[in-house]
Design brief:
The chain is mostly helical and 185 residues long. The chain contains seven helices and two strands. It has a two-stranded antiparallel sheet with strand order 1-2. The chain is elongated, with a radius of gyration of 24 Å.
Amino acid sequence: TLKRAYDLLSDKESRRLFDETGEWVDVPLDPRQTKIIEILSIGLDKTLFKIATEPQKFQFPKIIDLIATEIEEQRKELNIQKANYEQALAVSQDLLERFSVSEGKNLMRSVISKRISICEFQIAHIAEQMTRIDEALDYLKKTEFQIPLAIEFSKNQTSARPSADTKRVFKGYHPLLDWGELIKF
């Protein structure tokens, strides 16, 4: 499998063990790191799609900035979700003591208590996701992109422009867009 081969070649310890023993040892990923990789992968997939469908609008050499923009969009969406859950939590906490029954168990109190628990769980879960997004963005700040050989530099311009071959590759469907199907965690 492509992912296993990549994992083997990209991890120094796994490659060293393979070179010494010929055995393929799967190195388990840290769950935190796995989530960061997933965030980066989604950001890359969305960026490659935009580059492939609108090559005149997006410059390939600025791919790190484009990926960061996609990831920041995910963060904005999570902020909205978090605000909605916080509002639902506040309303639920306000309602908790307002229901009473003349006899028997107060089922509405149980319903609202469960609603409060769900809101608190979702807020904590979203906060964790936002932390991973922040870590992915910090990682991108330390990342450099080497301009592909297909990009030609104009002596009179500081920006890069795609060659005729590059323009042909980026129009419509692009095989890189299928990487997301190959990389599964």
